[in-house]
Amino acid sequence: LSMALAISAIQRGQTKKSFNLQIFTIICGLLFLVNKYFEWGGKISHGIYPGSQTLLAEEHGTILFYGLYYVMTGLHGFHVIIGIVLLTVMAVFTHKGIITKEKFIKLENSGLYWHLVDLIWIYLFPLFYLIT
Protein backbone atom coordinates (compact mmCIF):
# COMPACT_ATOMS: atom_id res chain seq x y z
CA LEU A 1 0.00 0.00 0.00
CA SER A 2 2.74 2.47 0.92
CA MET A 3 4.51 1.95 -2.41
CA ALA A 4 1.28 2.53 -4.35
CA LEU A 5 0.73 5.70 -2.33
CA ALA A 6 4.30 6.81 -3.10
CA ILE A 7 3.68 6.43 -6.83
CA SER A 8 0.36 8.24 -6.55
CA ALA A 9 2.02 11.07 -4.61
CA ILE A 10 4.77 11.58 -7.21
CA GLN A 11 2.13 11.64 -9.96
CA ARG A 12 0.43 14.50 -8.10
CA GLY A 13 3.75 16.33 -7.70
CA GLN A 14 4.05 15.59 -3.97
CA THR A 15 7.74 14.73 -4.02
CA LYS A 16 8.39 14.90 -0.28
CA LYS A 17 5.37 12.71 0.50
CA SER A 18 6.46 10.20 -2.15
CA PHE A 19 9.99 10.15 -0.74
CA ASN A 20 8.71 9.58 2.82
CA LEU A 21 6.43 6.76 1.67
CA GLN A 22 9.33 5.13 -0.17
CA ILE A 23 11.43 5.29 3.00
CA PHE A 24 8.53 3.79 4.97
CA THR A 25 8.30 0.94 2.42
CA ILE A 26 12.05 0.31 2.73
CA ILE A 27 11.74 0.20 6.53
CA CYS A 28 8.88 -2.32 6.25
CA GLY A 29 11.06 -4.50 4.01
CA LEU A 30 13.93 -4.30 6.50
CA LEU A 31 11.58 -5.23 9.37
CA PHE A 32 10.43 -8.25 7.35
CA LEU A 33 14.06 -9.36 6.96
CA VAL A 34 14.74 -8.87 10.68
CA ASN A 35 11.69 -11.01 11.42
CA LYS A 36 12.96 -13.77 9.09
CA TYR A 37 16.41 -13.56 10.72
CA PHE A 38 14.95 -14.27 14.16
CA GLU A 39 12.59 -16.91 12.77
CA TRP A 40 15.39 -18.78 11.00
CA GLY A 41 17.71 -18.29 13.98
CA GLY A 42 15.18 -19.91 16.31
CA LYS A 43 14.75 -22.91 14.04
CA ILE A 44 18.49 -23.30 13.48
CA SER A 45 19.24 -23.05 17.21
CA HIS A 46 16.80 -25.94 17.73
CA GLY A 47 18.62 -27.98 15.08
CA ILE A 48 15.90 -27.62 12.46
CA TYR A 49 17.73 -26.95 9.20
CA PRO A 50 18.42 -29.01 6.06
CA GLY A 51 20.94 -31.76 6.73
CA SER A 52 20.79 -31.50 10.54
CA GLN A 53 20.68 -34.69 12.58
CA THR A 54 17.52 -33.46 14.32
CA LEU A 55 15.72 -33.00 11.03
CA LEU A 56 17.07 -36.21 9.46
CA ALA A 57 15.49 -38.16 12.34
CA GLU A 58 12.05 -36.89 11.27
CA GLU A 59 9.65 -38.35 8.71
CA HIS A 60 10.29 -37.70 5.01
CA GLY A 61 7.34 -35.29 4.81
CA THR A 62 8.81 -33.13 7.58
CA ILE A 63 12.23 -33.14 5.91
CA LEU A 64 10.63 -32.11 2.60
CA PHE A 65 8.56 -29.39 4.29
CA TYR A 66 11.58 -27.77 5.92
CA GLY A 67 13.66 -28.09 2.77
CA LEU A 68 10.99 -26.25 0.81
CA TYR A 69 10.48 -23.81 3.67
CA TYR A 70 14.13 -22.74 3.70
CA VAL A 71 14.44 -22.58 -0.10
CA MET A 72 11.22 -20.64 -0.65
CA THR A 73 11.55 -18.21 2.26
CA GLY A 74 15.25 -17.76 1.45
CA LEU A 75 14.54 -16.98 -2.20
CA HIS A 76 11.78 -14.62 -1.15
CA GLY A 77 14.13 -12.90 1.29
CA PHE A 78 16.70 -12.53 -1.49
CA HIS A 79 14.09 -10.86 -3.70
CA VAL A 80 13.07 -8.58 -0.82
CA ILE A 81 16.73 -7.51 -0.55
CA ILE A 82 16.77 -6.75 -4.29
CA GLY A 83 13.56 -4.74 -3.82
CA ILE A 84 15.03 -2.80 -0.91
CA VAL A 85 18.12 -1.91 -2.97
CA LEU A 86 15.91 -0.90 -5.89
CA LEU A 87 13.64 1.22 -3.70
CA THR A 88 16.65 2.84 -2.05
CA VAL A 89 17.94 3.87 -5.48
CA MET A 90 14.47 5.21 -6.34
CA ALA A 91 14.34 7.17 -3.07
CA VAL A 92 17.73 8.73 -3.88
CA PHE A 93 16.50 9.54 -7.41
CA THR A 94 13.36 11.11 -5.95
CA HIS A 95 15.39 13.14 -3.48
CA LYS A 96 17.72 14.37 -6.26
CA GLY A 97 14.80 15.30 -8.52
CA ILE A 98 15.45 12.59 -11.11
CA ILE A 99 12.03 11.06 -10.38
CA THR A 100 9.43 13.76 -10.97
CA LYS A 101 5.76 14.25 -11.75
CA GLU A 102 6.65 14.02 -15.45
CA LYS A 103 9.25 11.23 -15.20
CA PHE A 104 8.09 8.57 -12.75
CA ILE A 105 8.20 5.38 -14.86
CA LYS A 106 11.28 4.04 -13.02
CA LEU A 107 9.47 4.42 -9.71
CA GLU A 108 6.34 2.83 -11.15
CA ASN A 109 8.29 -0.16 -12.49
CA SER A 110 10.08 -0.54 -9.15
CA GLY A 111 6.68 -0.50 -7.48
CA LEU A 112 5.49 -3.27 -9.80
CA TYR A 113 8.48 -5.39 -8.79
CA TRP A 114 7.83 -4.70 -5.10
CA HIS A 115 4.16 -5.65 -5.47
CA LEU A 116 5.11 -8.88 -7.27
CA VAL A 117 7.37 -9.83 -4.36
CA ASP A 118 4.54 -8.93 -1.97
CA LEU A 119 2.04 -11.00 -3.96
CA ILE A 120 4.33 -14.02 -3.83
CA TRP A 121 4.46 -13.69 -0.03
CA ILE A 122 0.64 -13.77 0.06
CA TYR A 123 0.89 -17.30 -1.39
CA LEU A 124 3.89 -18.42 0.66
CA PHE A 125 2.52 -17.29 4.03
CA PRO A 126 -0.49 -19.63 4.18
CA LEU A 127 1.53 -22.42 2.59
CA PHE A 128 4.13 -22.46 5.37
CA TYR A 129 2.42 -20.86 8.36
CA LEU A 130 -1.31 -21.62 8.24
CA ILE A 131 -1.53 -25.14 6.81
CA THR A 132 -1.03 -27.76 9.52
Automatic annotation (TrEMBL):
<dbReference type="InterPro" id="IPR035973">
    <property type="entry name" value="Cyt_c_oxidase_su3-like_sf"/>
</dbReference>
<dbReference type="InterPro" id="IPR024791">
    <property type="entry name" value="Cyt_c/ubiquinol_Oxase_su3"/>
</dbReference>
<feature type="transmembrane region" description="Helical">
    <location>
        <begin position="21"/>
        <end position="38"/>
    </location>
</feature>
<dbReference type="InterPro" id="IPR000298">
    <property type="entry name" value="Cyt_c_oxidase-like_su3"/>
</dbReference>
<keyword id="KW-1133">Transmembrane helix</keyword>
<dbReference type="GO" id="GO:0019646">
    <property type="term" value="P:aerobic electron transport chain"/>
</dbReference>
<comment type="similarity">
    <text>Belongs to the cytochrome c oxidase subunit 3 family.</text>
</comment>
<feature type="domain" description="Heme-copper oxidase subunit III family profile">
    <location>
        <begin position="1"/>
        <end position="132"/>
    </location>
</feature>
<feature type="transmembrane region" description="Helical">
    <location>
        <begin position="68"/>
        <end position="92"/>
    </location>
</feature>
<protein>
    <recommendedName>
        <fullName>Heme-copper oxidase subunit III family profile domain-containing protein</fullName>
    </recommendedName>
</protein>
<keyword id="KW-0812">Transmembrane</keyword>
<keyword id="KW-0472">Membrane</keyword>
<dbReference type="GO" id="GO:0016020">
    <property type="term" value="C:membrane"/>
</dbReference>
<dbReference type="Pfam" id="PF00510">
    <property type="entry name" value="COX3"/>
</dbReference>
<dbReference type="InterPro" id="IPR013833">
    <property type="entry name" value="Cyt_c_oxidase_su3_a-hlx"/>
</dbReference>
<dbReference type="GO" id="GO:0004129">
    <property type="term" value="F:cytochrome-c oxidase activity"/>
</dbReference>
<feature type="transmembrane region" description="Helical">
    <location>
        <begin position="112"/>
        <end position="131"/>
    </location>
</feature>
